[in-house]
Request: fold
Amino acid sequence: MRTLSAKTRNLTTLAVILLFGVGSQFLIGDPYVSHVLILGGIYGLLAIGLNIVTGFCGQINLGMAGFYAIGSYTSAILSVRYGFGFWPAFLISILSSTLVGVVIGFPALKVRGGVYLVLITTSFAGIIQTVLNQWVGLTNGPMGIVGIPAPSIFKHQISTLQDWLVLVYALVLIAALAAIRIERSRIGRSLIAVRESETSAQSLGINLAFYKVLAFALSAAFAGAAGSLYAHYMTTISPDIYSFSTSVLVLMMIVVGGVGSIPGSIIGGIIVSVLPELLRPLNELQMIVYSLLIVLSTIYLRKGIMGLGIDTARFFRRTLSVRRNDEQAR
Amino acid sequence: MGFLSVLFQLIIGGLAIGSVYGLVALAHSMIWSGVRVVNFAQGEIFMIAASVALMFVTGEWGQTLPFIPSAIIGTIVSAITGLLIYLLVMRPTTKWGFLYVIAGCVGVQMLLQNTAILIWGSTGRPFPAVLPMTPISVAGLLIVPQDVFILIISLAVAGALWLFLSKTKLGTAMRAAAQNRPVAGLMGISHVLTDGLTIAIASAVAGFAGILLAPKFFVTPQMGSLINSKAFTAAVLGGFGNIPGAIIGGLLLGVLENLAAGFISSQFKDAISFIVLILIMMFKPGGLFDAGPGRKA
Amino acid sequence: MRVRIRVSAAIFLLSALVGFSPLYAQDIVIGAISARTGDNAALGEMQGNGAKIAVEEINAAGGILGKKLVLALEDSQGVPAQAVAALNKLVYRDRVVAVIGDSQSSPCLAMLPVILKAQIPMLPHGTNPSITKQGNPWIFRTRANDAVKFGSLGDFLVNKDGFKRMAVLHDSADYGIGGMAALRTTLSSKSNVIVAEESWTPGDKDFSSQLLKIKKAEPDVLVLIGPMVDMGLAMKQARQMGITAQFAGGAGIEASTTLGAAGGAGEGLIFAAGFISANPDPRVVSFVQKFTALYGKKPDDFAATGYDSIYLVAEAIKAAKSTKAEEIKKALSTLVYKGIEGTFAFDDSGEGLHSMQFGTISNGQPAFYTPSKK
Reply:
């Protein structure tokens, strides 16, 4: 029971933080911070996806950029070339991404061990990027796709940054809740069982193949959603965005936020977006300090920020309750 | 140009660059078989060695040194860098799982690359060649001496390493530790010594590969990232942990890429290596030379 | 719980102050965005250095409208989302009057909608023609786009210099693909001039397979389109393979980085550029001297574009006698200005440079080129 309540505490913390952060931006409307938060939210979706396959199920996936790309390009092509509305395009993007996720799940089954998974997922993402570059007829190749239209919801066009903040974070919240439901359900427990010990899971009657493929499919679904949002938000996409560095970035998000933690995914996504901006005043040292912080957090913050968060809150509560007792005693 | 001469040129070119992939792949396999970790920042070590050696060859630090001492300094620096990365980043993170090793190494990669940009600037610099770069005609085929030099030296290094590992006491100790760690420990072989030596030697080899390739390809802070993925693929082709396999894997990859680009399409050069990789992963995960069941990575 | 709320609230109200810089209150700030880390960091280095020289010269001459000019350099890492973040910071925190860059097309395209909302002038350095085709009135491109660059190169090589068999080796990014398309369009009336077309992934350093196919086609001129280091290495390897064709390319192929990588193979190549460092024009000479003295390298056309862009903004402000964005935009659209890259006159779509000059490499140094009809 203690573990469950800690998780709930984290969730409420996350919800409060998001409410304040996003809410304050909604009111202030500062474009600089808003853009970074919107991007952070989109990254959060990617991170949730990665956490499902890597955090819960233990399958390292360094090919998230591939699913991200499929989401973006499906949405972009459907809306720019065929006049699809945002929501149909969005849903189809998720679908196509998930399908590809299933396809990738199968080769991933055949390999054992982290190194080989890394290679397969990286190769997959690499193939996707090459196809995007070469199939000029479909994707316009390296020239990219421009003029991707903004979504509209109930006749209201999403045009301002505030609109985007609400849209993205509403979707993030829905995604987080969905992911947490999965985590707590039988599916989630089976995925985690696969991570902990494949042999034991099998002995419990868990179909390894089914769950591994499911994990990939789910991660692809979230990445596809993120991709579609990204395309409509940035209004232009090109193959160079969906590179190995992007896949690695998603990995950073879950390591920094906390592997296996859904609130951590969102926090990680936001941190990865915000941190470089906080470091901008350092000019040439910006990326050096950034990479140093990443290395340090990997070594020292094993549980990610979420792990830190629990400790900090407990620390605050202890110090502040001591003071309160003193005051009452007087 | 006859078909055979085209084929021959493609193969020679592929072998030269493949031998360098092979050396870095060898570093990966050596570290894996000996210490059971993977250094994803190997490419950056490659780059640092080349950049440092270049510094001495051009006299940025005062005196100009000839090629050999500069190469030695560069190689030593790469050995030290490799050891530092191992001690500070890889050791702590390996306990927690591959995910963290990758994250840590990628962080190191970014750190090293951006530091290199800070120190040496982002535009590339040429590295003076050791042998002439103009081709000579041998039996109607054009061969570049520098390429042959790279190939021969790479094979020599691999050969020397093999001799060291099989014939010397230290080398045998390292092999023993790689084969069976606990028993080797019981026999009095110090893990600290063998681990440290493995990392140092492997990093030195990777660094030396960078110095070898520098005259052919130009020294930039980004030269490591390209090599990283190719060397990794080569190591897997040859069987991860299989040291001679790594060299062969590298040579094979170099030649395969060239042949694919030459006869199929240059557009799909990269995609082809990815596809090959996936096929190997699916059907022969232990690498091409895998005899028995693949070792769990 | 209360504690967390307080801490979280504090964190996020602080976030509104992120990047707040009141330092620039009295000065005129121009922002410059480019990749300064990552694979294309070399572009940002050149752009930044060129811009710095312009800023320093302008300030030494008394500034603009009596105020000091300040350059705010930001790193986009060549990533569109980062370019937008950098743009937002420059516009909403540093209160820049104009933005120069990004050096690559993909980030530029992402910045366009933000510029439209922010309503300040942007001088992009990316060369994808679609940048000026979005109907955005705030865009003023200070480099010749790929169509102009390679179109005029193709025309020059075939029609004025008499080459008959052209091979093209281009990268697979938008630069290479766009350039190739421009060549094809220009030479469409001359069938069979293009005898070979090969491509490579930018960053790839081994061209043996592509060059072998090109050699087979026996071209008399080989046009290269791609990143500088790659082009240099390609030329070196081409000569090593016995390809004797004349080399040609757009701006960048004559840069010292390219020639360094080519190691002598670049001798005699033909290039199309706005900026030729051998130009005896005193401004060009002075620029090249200052740049080489300060940075130990010769400037390339990205540096020249950085330099000219700053001057263009400065001239526009002077002409408009105001730092208001709308006034600067108006002034830029009617401005005719001779920079070191050529004469700028912005047309309706925002293209500023409409013709190229042709140079060659003679004894390792850029020089002007006079065609010799074969």
Observations:
- Residues 141 and 289 of chain A are 35 Å apart (CA to CA).
